[in-house]
Amino acid sequence: MPRRDPDAVRAPKFSARDRLAFLLALVPWLMDHERVTVDEAAAHFDVDADLVRESVELIAVSGVPGDTSSYQHGDLFDIAWDAFEDRGEIVLTNLVAIDDAPRFSAREAAALIAGLQYLSSLPETADSAAIATLMGKLSRGASGPVAPVGVAGEATDGRLATIRDAVSRGVQLELDYLNSRGEHERRRVDPLRIDSNDTDWYLRGWCHLRQAVRTFRLDRMSDVVVTDRPIEHRVDEVALPDKLFEGATTELVVTLDVASAAVPLLDDYIPDGAPRSTHGDLVRLELPISHLDVLKRLVAGMPGVATVVGPPEARAAVEAWAQAALERYSVD
């Protein structure tokens, strides 16, 4: 082993707990990088090179005893000693117990990678090196080959970046909005906050046309323009409700029978304290809606688990909508 200069300046001594934490971080890092120098490892962890050398030497005499309860050669970590002593390179040549650790299945790793790809598509996490590194580790560390996964970008990605820019700068937006009645309106909005519900994105802001806080779905927006006008209502000056969806002042209250397992899908739409009762596997609840078109889309999205009980005009509207849909399948 090369002799070290006893007069060399040393880094502050690590406690036993610090050394253990460093070793636990060093081993998987060395496995990921296959061949690195002592100086590269020291720079990555921001520690003294002597600490890296001492830790690598300790790793090389660490392991798990085999069936004989004594340490044999294959029961210890090992390194390429010539490369380590002559060129200061660290190469692990034998790993112990690492391969016995629990691993994600290929399907679990693919699901996590898909989620990370979705995160990497968002403006605030785009081009994140940490996400790319984590996806690589998941691919290599799964118990089997991971199927290639690709998450397509949403059509709203460009609008989302534009709106985030307006929120961060505190300036107004102008946009065309398709409301629940199918009508296009030009709106001027003070953007306050962006929220998501599953895969749908929403802007919450002060609408100058309605003179109130409103929630806008991004996929119903078009011709979004960021202006130079500062917002007139700030997030700390208006009351943003905890729930994403709030009922309008002119509401139609609809009574629904919903399968109990599907009730959580409606929680964001049900006002606090709204009456509900249980009848076997069904929950009867009251839901305020702004327009019957909203009810049609809601029932269409919950086929077989939601039934309109009343009022009569709501039942008639849903029935007529369903009948019109069936007629499209008829053949002349």
Mean pLDDT: 78
- Given as residue ranges, the uncertain stretches (5+ residues, pLDDT < 50) are 1-12
Helix/strand structural class: alpha+beta
Describe the global form: elongated
Task: Explain this structure.
It is built from 9 helices and 13 strands. The chain has helices spanning 16-33, 38-45, 49-59, 81-87, 106-120, 129-141, 157-169, 292-300, 312-327; strands at 36-37, 78-79, 89-90, 92-94, 171-178, 184-197, 200-207, 212-217, 221-230, 252-259, 276-279, 282-289, 306-310. The strands form 4 sheets. The chain has a 5-stranded antiparallel β-sheet, covered by helices on one side. Strands 11-12-10-13 form a 4-stranded antiparallel β-sheet. Strands 1-3 form a two-stranded antiparallel sheet. Helix 2 (38-45) crosses helix 3. The longest helix has 18 residues, at 16-33. The model is unreliable at 1-12 (pLDDT under 50). Residues 18-139 form the PafC HTH domain. This is WYL domain-containing protein.
